[in-house]
Fold this protein.
Amino acid sequence: MKHRALALWIALLVVGALAVSFITPAPLAAEEPQVYKVGFISHLTGDAAVYGQSLKMGTELAVDVINEAGGINGVPVEVIYEDDRLSAADAQTAFLKLVETDKVPVILGSASSTISLSLCPKAQEKKVVQVSQVSTAPALKDCGPYFFSVMASDTAQGPEWVKVAEYLGVKEAAVMYINNDYGIGVKDTFVQAFEAAGGKLLIVQPFELGGKDFRTEVLKVKGTNPPVVFIVDHVAEASIVFKQAAELGLKTQWVTDVSIVSPEVPQLAGKEAVEGIMGLRAGSSQTPEYQAFREAFLKKFGKEPTIWADFAYDAMMLVAKAIEKGGYTADGIQKALFEVAETYVGPSGAKKFDEYGISQGSYEWVVVKDGEWVLYEKAPSATETPSATETAQ
Amino acid sequence: MEIFVQLLINGVIAGGTYALAAVGYSMVYGALKFINFAHGSIAMVGAYIAFVLVTMADVPLVPAFLGSMLLTAGLGVMVERVAYRPLRRAPKLASLTTAIAVSFVLDAAVMIIMGADIRTFSLTGMRSYQIGPIYITPVQGAIILTSLVFMVGLYGLLTRTKLGKAIRAVADGISLAEVSGIDTNLIISAVFAIGSALAAASGALIGMDTNLQPTMGFIITVKAFAAVVLGGLGNVWGAVVGAFLIGIVENTGVWFIPPVWKDSIAYGILILALFLRPSGIFGKKEEAQVTVL
């Protein structure tokens, strides 16, 4: 009985303390904030942690650069990192925490188009600027004035694949796509562009996020003997698809979307399974901006830049410049973002926004050689059909 | 036809990994009459132990595999001792909730220690062999072989040994076993040791065949649960049959229907089977009355 009474008192105390901490009004924002807080939501754990962790590193590097140069008008930047575990529900919680408790006017993220789409109505409603680093689903352009993405829309990837098909001289191909907003977006633009160019699709095979056994899907594709398979996927699932395709004796030329061009894929799938796979890489690794970024990244993290860290770096840089120009309010940042992006060129390229707040971009072709993604060297005759990369340069 | 044989083999491979996990699940249900939702996470820990032994401690594959089974058996016994035994006389819902908590704790612990990244064993020289129309890798061969060997071994243990007799006695009625002079705590520890060791085998084989993630336990739990209910709660052999059935139907089913339905297939068969036989394929009639909780 005594124990029970004691436990009750402790419980009451805890509840009381919690209640007080909730009721206590947050100190009124001072005229000059001590630090500019910026929110960050991405998949830091779970099936797509590869992307979230990579974006976090790119953001950290940008914050270092900003703060070492004296912050924004002498005020340092602090990024508050929240994990959405690739779940729309967790993203909502993280969003509310950042907006209600931390009072941030701007949020970076998320990576996945599905999660970014789930966040954008709330961001519009609360008037918080949302800058996604790499979300590319075409539907994002309808989000509203507070949404920005520093990576080009997927509508550009499909036509680029068609250029690869033309370069390889194939009229027939198979498509494998991951069944989410992103995968369907890329698949649709490609199917449309490829068929318009007179191509014939042997099979269009979906598969599921988070699966580990894609053997039946691979066998179905193998049954059509495709000379080329275009695949849009994430690192985790793609690694298994390549591994199981090699195990099941599927011999073809793979061409991937931008999400798969990550150093983890050869490590996870095994070198032999991915040798010779072609892919699209967003941005260009040949610019001086990228080379400088690469060196800084190597110095800070001791490894080659991870996938899309350059886009995360640019998103953070643009936000910092927008705060400097427009002030630390959502409306100020929203207006200033369009202006600062006009002239900004970062490691991931020029970031000028269109009317929907979405950057344009280019791709370069890469190929796996000895377990590493390297620039694809086109045969001389290919220069007659310039790719978007070449026209961009 | 050739494709069908390959699909069948793929189904058997998947079924083998489900079966190894399902057996332990079923044994725990038999002994304690509660659903151990942490079982998949135990399998995940087993996979990571094998991974650490192979890639960081340079232990050869087979000893690492057996070592992981042994260590995971210890973990299972510990989990039962710490998390389930104090609640043995409490309503079953309490144990179930605790099991869910245990699975979160294990997932989070592995995520903190090993990171959330996807890991792989990077086994070298693992190419597939072509036997007739079938492609199969050594790991996949090992999955089929291991699951068969362990099932036969378990059958021997349960039917031919004193321990097996005691386990069956506890499953038939824990109070009755206790008054007959059986040390039920010891037997339940043994059940958790065996179940967890087999779960570790399942996790490690899945890890070698594909890859490892701290969240991989969930899908193992889901598939093993379906297999156990399909086979008849608490019936070990039913769980094995259920596991292979689900593996095969999933793999052949995706040939005909979109893969978005793949995980629904397992539960589709389950619902259908339960309509026809409410106690599962091999379940005893009266067990239909036992609620899942």
